[in-house]
Design goal:
Layout (H helix, E strand, L loop, with lengths): L1 H22 L1 H36 L4 H24 L7 H30 L9 H35 L10 H27 L2 H21 L3 H34 L4 E8 L2 E8 L2 E6 L2 E6 L2 H14 L5 E5 L6 H5 L7 E6 L2 H10 L1 H4 L7 E5 L2 H7 L4 E6 L7 H4 L4 H9 L1 E12 L7 H15 L4 E5 L3 E7 L9 H10 L11 H5 L2 H10 L15 H12 L3 H12 L2 H21 L3 H32 L3 H24 L4 H27 L4 H34 L6 H50 L7 H4 L1
Parallel strand pairs: 5-6, 5-8, 6-7, 8-9
Antiparallel strand pairs: 1-2, 2-3, 3-4, 9-11, 10-11
Helix pairs in contact: 2-3, 2-4, 2-5, 2-6, 2-7, 2-24, 3-5, 3-27, 4-5, 4-7, 4-8, 5-6, 5-27, 6-24, 6-26, 7-8, 16-20, 20-21, 20-27, 22-27, 23-24, 23-25, 23-26, 23-27, 24-26, 25-26, 25-27, 26-27
Length: about 800
């Protein structure tokens, strides 16, 4: 009888619960929807914030891609801290809706504040206006400035996921609670995908940083109001209308004032005349006395008037040619190089190539004397990438002049590689000359500088049988495909200078004999003679970028430079062997551990985070190496990666079967993804024609990003089945999400600061293969253990 009574009581209780759930069904359904929207808003805010702040940090750190790696690593680290703390401390466990609303409000405040902090940080660590930042200021700036925003986004993901799981327990249409983690990841990734695509096609084109930040803030405040009010559809609609009405004055009036104030902080010590964000980067014009300077992503492009730089950029190369008729100038038009080149009477055509149309517009406004040469009928302006222009034209030139900064970034390095030199040689007429210039030293060269310049010379000599170097603070490398064209005799150049009646101040009859004196020419010849160990610089093995990193780091103390060079001295085979031994030890521990059912998915999640971040960096830098820019494509590729993650999570939720074997299969696919990306990059580099180039850039690259993201999203959702088997495991989701982010953090840091500069793209891809091979071994079920025991 007691059993019957108890049974009847349970039936009555269950009946009352069902009835209560039926009465509250609209509220439960709304709660589930609100939780899902909160997750999407979290992903949207995180990705848009990441894109905007990535841009700000690149400008603050003069376009240095090590800053990009540090930024991505720091972003993922702090997000992992936020998610793990939220899980471990049970933030929002009792009142997740209120906790999520509070986090939304804090997010709304922190993005504009973070942008301001990044811009103000430059004036703090920059003792002299315009100087480069060192590794320590970069790291400290990213760690401090990104901390609050990233911790909040990480915590919000976990809290909103709890809301989703709690609502899912009361909603019969939601499905099992064990897939709540996968659904949360799906919704967050979907919001991230929308944010990336929207930022690319709309936000970055129409709005400045603070305007975007205020729009994101209003979205988060609206979400907080929805969560707190717990309103029905009509209330949500009214809140949306109110947000739009508030957005207009804030975006139109407040944001421009914040933008101007923050720009003054960023360019403290300068008289800033203009600053514009374009799809290719940030352009800024400053004025100091009578000198105006133009910067691209914080790195100086040109000063004007600067007759010494303008003359040296063209005259040494053109004087080496007996009678130049057709000239190609890549960059350098702002500093007056075009006008100097046109002084040579034999020139009948000068093709000037510049990537960013906004640069030409700013030159006409702020550098009118130098831009006047644009209107000469002999000048033909081409607004496209220099390498793409060279590949597309059938013309041959008597001189190709490359007047761009040193290869301090992957974007600039592509103009100093064997692939570019080979393309230039094919477009030189008989007796043609290729000219590049790099920073050097008037007196003694440091060992780091010698190694860097030897690398460039070795790369040139691999394509040209004749190479001459003219020493000075700026060293000029001149190359020709025919022997006997170039000369190191200053008298030959002086004779041509007189014959052409050139009116010059610095490349003149006084300076040429000094720059090209026999002792100086012999000294630079002996200093820069390539060694047997001197490598060749290539598009996907950018060793010149590595040497430039060494030069850059040596400016801020020898400790980092020595460490970097010691690490680079270890061969790739030894590095792979050491990593393989370490991974095998970890796999052995995981396979024989008592809690293998949790360690295996944890290890796979870390490996997946590492690999997806590696694929993202390879795609971004590879796109930059192939097409010459990345900021225009940055948001699209990130958005497509997140769209792939959403797709992968959705497929995993729909997919049933042995979880561990599915994880092992995905790790195999991830192992193959690195070489696949490199095949795509290699093929993309050989593509010609406007239509085919557009297809590769706008369809193939985003498709590869979707594929990479889909593998990551699928793996996370499958791993969550094993790692977070019950919704009651409150800390599980936060811990797993943190492991995914930490894997990405390690990937961003190791790839950008070590693997890619030292070993190049292909070897980095093989390192990813090794990492995923170890994850496959960890995920494969043992012979005696059942799949059900692990899942």
């Amino acid at each position: 009888m007691p059993g019957v009574i108890a049974c009847s009581g349970r039936r009555a209780f269950n009946s009352q619960s069902v009835k209560a759930n039926q009465q509250n069904a609209p509220q439960i359904a709304y709660g589930y929807t609100a939780a899902g929207v909160a997750l999407a808003v979290c992903g949207f805010s995180a990705v848009v914030g990441q894109i905007v702040l990535m841009r700000e940090l690149i400008v603050a750190f003069n376009g240095n891609e090590i800053a990009l790696g540090m930024m991505l690593a720091t972003w993922l680290l702090w997000t992992a801290v936020g998610s793990s703390l939220s899980g471990a401390l049970h933030w929002g466990t009792r009142y997740p809706r209120h906790a999520a609303a509070a986090l939304e409000c804090l997010l709304a405040l922190t993005l504009p504040a973070t942008i301001w902090a990044v811009r103000a940080a430059k004036s703090i660590f920059q003792s002299v206006p315009g100087e480069l930042a060192g590794p320590l200021p970069m790291l400290l700036t990213t760690l401090v400035c990104l901390s609050v925003y990233c911790v909040l986004t990480g915590a919000l993901f976990v809290v909103a996921a709890r809301m989703l799981a709690d609502a899912g327990q009361h909603n019969a249409n939601v499905g099992a609670a064990r897939v709540a983690a996968g659904r949360a990841y799906l919704l967050e990734a979907a919001g991230s995908a929308v944010g990336g695509v929207l930022a690319s096609v709309l936000l970055l084109r129409l709005f400045e940083s603070f305007q975007i930040a205020i729009l994101v803030a209003l979205l988060n405040l609206w979400m907080a109001a929805v969560l707190l009010a717990w309103l029905r559809r009509r209330g949500v609609f009214l809140l949306a209308i109110a947000a739009v009405l508030v957005a207009v004055p804030l975006v139109g009036l407040l944001a421009p004032r914040l933008e101007r104030g923050a720009q003054k902080q960023l360019w403290s010590g300068f008289n800033l005349l203009d600053s514009r964000d374009t799809i290719y980067g940030n352009l800024a014009v400053t004025e100091t006395g009578a000198i105006r300077s133009i910067y691209n992503d914080g790195a100086i492009l040109a000063n004007a008037p600067d007759p010494a730089a303008a003359e040296e950029a063209v005259h040494y190369a053109l004087l080496e040619h007996a009678a130049p008729h057709r000239v190609l100038l890549i960059g350098g038009g702002v500093n007056g190089a075009i006008g100097e080149a046109l002084k040579h009477p034999s020139i009948v055509s000068l093709d000037y190539v510049e990537l960013d149309p906004a640069l030409i517009g700013m030159a006409r406004t702020y550098f009118p004397a130098q831009a006047a040469a644009f209107h000469d009928p002999r000048v033909h302006l081409h607004l496209m990438d220099g390498r793409r222009s060279l590949a597309a034209t059938p013309e041959k030139f008597d001189a190709i002049l490359v007047d761009i900064p040193d290869p301090q970034t992957a974007q600039l390095n592509r103009f100093y590689t064997a692939e570019f030199f080979s393309a230039a040689r094919q477009h030189l007429a008989a007796g043609g000359v290729l000219a590049i210039e790099l920073r050097s030293s008037e007196d003694t060269m440091s060992p780091e500088l010698q190694s860097f310049l030897r690398c460039i010379r070795r790369t040139l000599e691999g394509e040209f049988p004749s190479v001459v170097a003219i020493p000075g603070e700026t060293i000029h490398f001149l190359a020709s495909a025919q022997r006997g064209v170039l000369t190191g005799d200053p008298n030959v150049l002086l004779e041509r200078l007189r014959e052409r009646q050139l009116n010059t101040q610095y490349v003149s009859r006084w300076f040429i004999p000094y720059r090209m004196s026999s002792d100086r020419m012999q000294q630079v010849e002996s200093q820069l003679r390539p060694l047997p160990s001197t490598p060749v610089n290539r598009d996907f093995a950018p060793v010149a970028y590595y040497y430039n990193v060494v030069l850059w780091s040596a400016q801020f103390g020898n400790a980092y430079s020595r460490w970097f060079q010691r690490a680079a001295s270890v061969s790739f085979s030894h590095t792979m062997g050491a990593v393989a031994v370490l991974l095998l030890m970890i796999v052995a521990i995981m396979r024989f551990a008592r809690k293998r059912a949790r360690l295996a998915p944890a290890g796979c999640t870390v490996a997946t985070g590492f690999t997806v971040m590696a694929l993202q960096i390879l795609l971004l830098l590879g796109f930059e190496s192939v097409f010459g820019y990345v900021y225009y494509q940055l948001a699209i590729l990130i958005g497509m990666l997140m769209a792939g993650m959403a797709l992968g999570s959705w497929l995993a939720i729909k997919c049933s079967g042995p979880a561990m074997r599915q994880m092992a299969a995905v790790q195999l696919l991830l192992a193959a993804a690195g070489p696949l990306v490199m095949v795509v990059l290699s093929l993309a580099g050989s593509v010609h024609g406007a239509a085919l180039t557009w297809v590769v850039a706008q369809i193939v690259f985003p498709a590869v990003a979707v594929l990479a993201g889909a593998l990551g999203g699928f793996q996370f959702a499958i791993a969550a089945r094993v790692f977070v088997p019950r919704v009651e495991s409150r800390a599980g989701l936060g811990a797993l999400y943190a492991l995914d982010l930490l894997g990405g953090c390690v990937g961003a840091l190791v790839l950008s600061t070590y693997l890619i500069p030292v070993f190049g793209f292909w070897r980095t891809a093989w390192m990813c293969v090794l990492v995923n091979a170890a994850a496959v071994l960890a995920a494969l079920p043992g012979g005696a253990e059942s799949e059900s025991a692990l899942t």
